[in-house]
Amino acid sequence: MRITLRPLLLAGLVALPLGAAHAQSNTPAPGGAEAPAAATPVRVAIHVDENDPARMTMALNNAANIEAYYAEQGQEVEIEIVTYGPGLHMLRADTSPVADRIATMSLEYPDMVFSACENTIAGMERQSGETVSLIDEAVKVPSGAVRLIELQNEGWAYLRP
Description:
Blueprint: H1 6-24, E1 42-48, H2 53-73, E2 77-83, H3 99-108, E3 113-117, H4 118-128, E4 138-141, H5 144-153, E5 157-159
Parallel strand pairs: 1-2, 1-5, 2-3, 3-4
């Protein structure tokens, strides 16, 4: 009697990826036990490139809601709001319609970062002939667009409200 191994080998190759996918999922383990929580924090980059108070408020609402959701889950979260172009007004000391809320949120969520594009700052200063002042919570990054690319390359989720 001759036994062929090809069907068994093929069945094993198909089952292996399915088993691996289950092992990496967040679904309960066999027997109803919960899979362990991820050790790495959830990381979210939020993109603001419009001088629109409603859009800025939505970005801050999204950030607060994300923080609250993951805190309830017992999961650490890191959020970076990246501004450039007209969205830089969100972080300008003289024009931000949300400066007070950012000040409050930065105290409530000390790991939240508010990034301001230096390319945009330089362009605004050339155009106006005046120095652009940022709110205290802002940190400068060389390029807002490049910063978003870097964060996504590091595995951060991307959100544009």
